[in-house]
Amino acid sequence: MTNTGRIRKINQDAFLERKECGLWVVADGMGGHNSGEVASKAVIDAMTNVQLPDTLSGKIDILEAALKSVNYQLLIKARKFGPDGVIGTTAVLMFVHHDQCILLWAGDSRAYRFREQHLMQLTKDHSYVQQLVDKDLLTKDEAEHHPFSNLVTHSVGTSEEIYVDFADSEIEPDDLFLLCSDGLNKELSDAEITQVLSAGGSLKEMNQRLIEQTLTKGGHDNVTTLLIKARSTS
């Protein structure tokens, strides 16, 4: 589910659900000339058409290659805006392989796991403020409200070499996974996200509540939330 927010006029976020092959994607575009919208759509288009093989290494390789291809395409498109032109986007991908979820990402769009009323961030932001947190110069809460919190250190389309990060998580019955753009976590704390997910309901209802609370807190950016529920044993 995605929303433009209360301030922006254009939604540069995009998302994809391919339940048939166990692939989910959120992209958060950046740049002027409406180019962020172009960039996030390019990621989604690429992931819509990618064919995943059976092996884990094969899936990782083809998804990383697809991101590298989009990176190259966006660099070419950006040239028409001059040497300082940027057509970029963050991207966070999740796919399921047997009893594992695998995450690939570039930028500060996030993946969380909600298990037994506990929210855990599975990705680590590629951002200037995260670097300060790593050096113990900022707390996580201070980073969310820092004036440079929007500066990403890696993304798709902004440099010749794209850096893609990886993580994995074992999947347990009833696990709930959340992919989101930073429009969510810039407005809602982990505790507030936990409160929404703890209230339960359908995935659509929980997505709606996350978006509604984000808008209530200000909705200063586009916001996208994508919830994935693991099968129950019951």
TrEMBL record:
Residues 1-230 form the PPM-type phosphatase domain. It comes from the Bacteria. One of its GO terms (molecular function) is protein serine/threonine phosphatase activity. PROSITE patterns: PPM_2 (PS51746). This is Serine/threonine protein phosphatase. It comes from Vibrio albus.
